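Field log, afternoon session.

UNIT: design team B
ACTIVITY: writing a sequence onto a fixed backbone
BACKBONE:
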């Protein structure tokens, strides 16, 4: 069927050309990888693929596994926005909540979803799919009994009794073959006749991330290309050399060190057989991103604490001690905390403020006061969120681990409706799955600025957070203001991320020494 002959009345929201083209090409495919950049409309494609399969009688259910909070957004925002009325009228939507799993109403909803005669939509978080049965001890007999089957078992019940389109949103979350979530998702995918993965940044850390993602789509996929074993795959697409380092005891230890990748042209051809890649610049006429940097000076007390941690780290680096990426990131994190005005303890005690003045916080608030429109303020530490919320009061809403799913949902709604000027968010919690454009009809109510108060080490997180307000629907130029401590590692981390360098997995001792010098 040509795009020109498609009856657009079957869609609740009109598709862009690239969406319609891919819908026509893949709506009946059993497996498909949607590697589309953030903000290019992956969700529309998935929802309308489900509607098409349901109309044809090929499915009667959809499972969506997504990061926590994003799975809820599918049910409250995305499906109601894009699902056509002829299908929505026969649909039942449910967001599985681990924190409510023992509640009777939640269990009743689960059972009703299993029995629903139309199209049943189940949205679960990656954390929920690995939860085991919940047990409790009978007060009278002392025996243990199951009060709820758990998320893993409920997912199995759903897959074994329904004809399912299984969607994994932000599929990079299953990049580690050894992780429990990866094992559960990949194994459970075998029981769904139709499978999709959605990913805006499929390989931010390199080609190794792809192995389990495409294995979910087709368990025999890599076998067909001669690299079905994880070790074989790594050896074919990675380049390794034997290396030696001294451990803490001074003993030389040998290991295989990844020094680069190879055969990527072959990998791209393989991936093209099951996936589609779309870049925002190729399909959307969006206004540009504008990057600026604002710097602050550490207080004397902060500078002293910063130097002490830095000098201790340099001694370690120059002494030839084995410095792994996790160890390096831990030390860099300590430096970030000092630059954010506090010192964390190693014994579980509460963090301690460094003096009464916090230059980073003061600069963020100064920037915020100068903005006549709405903005997102991205943070790394909960302590910073707390202080910003205290300072901004009712003008701000928060989205981080300190508030539950209901409060997060209300925060998104309030911000987009214009009830709050600032959306104060933790990067890791809020970087995926949210649309934070505000009201584009009015200049003052549109979200045109992101203030990055603190900086992630993870390239994928940085790319994701930038696109919460730079996506379909944005009419204004989007500014990203990176707040950096003068003379600190902030500016090195920001420069690395903007150059598409993933600090979280590629940082080395030599690079860190350059940053600290």
């Amino acid at each position: 069927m040509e795009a020109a002959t498609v009856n657009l009345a079957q869609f609740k929201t009109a598709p862009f050309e690239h969406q319609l083209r891919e819908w026509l090409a893949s709506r009946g495919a059993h497996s498909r990888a949607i590697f589309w950049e953030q903000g290019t409309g992956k969700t529309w494609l998935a929802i309308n693929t489900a509607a098409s399969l349901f109309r044809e009688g090929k499915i009667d259910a959809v499972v969506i596994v997504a990061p926590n909070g994003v799975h809820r957004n599918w049910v409250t925002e995305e499906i109601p926005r894009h699902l056509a009325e002829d299908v929505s009228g026969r649909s039942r939507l449910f967001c599985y909540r681990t924190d409510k799993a023992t509640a009777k109403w939640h269990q009743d909803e689960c059972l009703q979803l299993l029995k629903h005669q139309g199209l049943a939509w189940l949205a679960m978080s990656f954390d929920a799919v690995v939860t085991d049965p919940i047990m409790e001890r009978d007060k009278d007999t002392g025996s243990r009994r199951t009060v709820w089957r758990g998320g893993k078992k409920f997912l199995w019940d759903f897959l074994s009794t329904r004809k399912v389109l299984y969607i994994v949103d932000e599929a990079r979350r299953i990049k580690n073959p050894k992780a429990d979530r990866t094992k559960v998702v990949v194994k459970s995918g075998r029981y769904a006749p139709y499978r999709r993965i959605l990913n805006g940044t499929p390989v931010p850390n390199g080609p190794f991330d792809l192995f389990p993602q495409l294995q979910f789509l087709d368990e025999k996929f890599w076998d067909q290309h001669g690299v079905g074993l994880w070790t074989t795959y790594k050896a074919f697409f990675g380049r390794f050399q034997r290396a030696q380092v001294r451990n803490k005891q001074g003993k030389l230890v040998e290991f295989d060190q990844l020094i680069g990748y190879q055969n990527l042209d072959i990998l791209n051809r393989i991936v093209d057989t099951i996936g589609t890649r779309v870049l925002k610049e190729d399909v959307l006429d969006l206004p540009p991103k504008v990057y600026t940097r604002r710097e602050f000076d550490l207080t004397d007390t902060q500078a002293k604490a910063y130097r002490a941690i830095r000098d201790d780290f340099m001694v370690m680096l120059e002494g030839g001690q084995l410095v792994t990426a996790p160890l390096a990131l831990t030390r860099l994190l300590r430096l970030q905390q000092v630059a954010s005005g506090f010192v964390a303890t190693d014994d579980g005690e509460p963090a301690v403020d460094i003096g009464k003045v916090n230059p980073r916080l003061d600069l963020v608030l100064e920037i915020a006061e100068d903005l006549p429109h709405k903005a997102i303020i991205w943070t790394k530490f909960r302590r910073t969120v707390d202080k910003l919320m205290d300072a901004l009061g009712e003008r701000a809403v928060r989205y981080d681990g300190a508030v539950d799913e209901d409060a997060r949902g209300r925060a998104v709604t309030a911000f987009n409706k214009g009830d709050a000027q600032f959306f104060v968010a933790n990067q890791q919690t809020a970087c995926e799955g949210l649309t934070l454009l505000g009201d584009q009809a009015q200049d003052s109510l549109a979200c045109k600025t992101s203030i990055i108060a603190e900086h992630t080490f993870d390239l994928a997180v940085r790319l994701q957070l930038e696109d919460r307000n730079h996506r379909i629907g944005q009419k204004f130029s989007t500014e990203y203001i990176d707040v950096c401590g003068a003379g600190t590692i902030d500016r090195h981390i920001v420069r690395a991320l903007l150059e598409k360098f993933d600090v979280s997995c590629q940082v080395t001792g030599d690079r860190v020494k350059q940053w600290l010098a």
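LOG NOTE: The longest strand covers residues 252-261.
NEXT ACTIVITY: expression trials, pending approval
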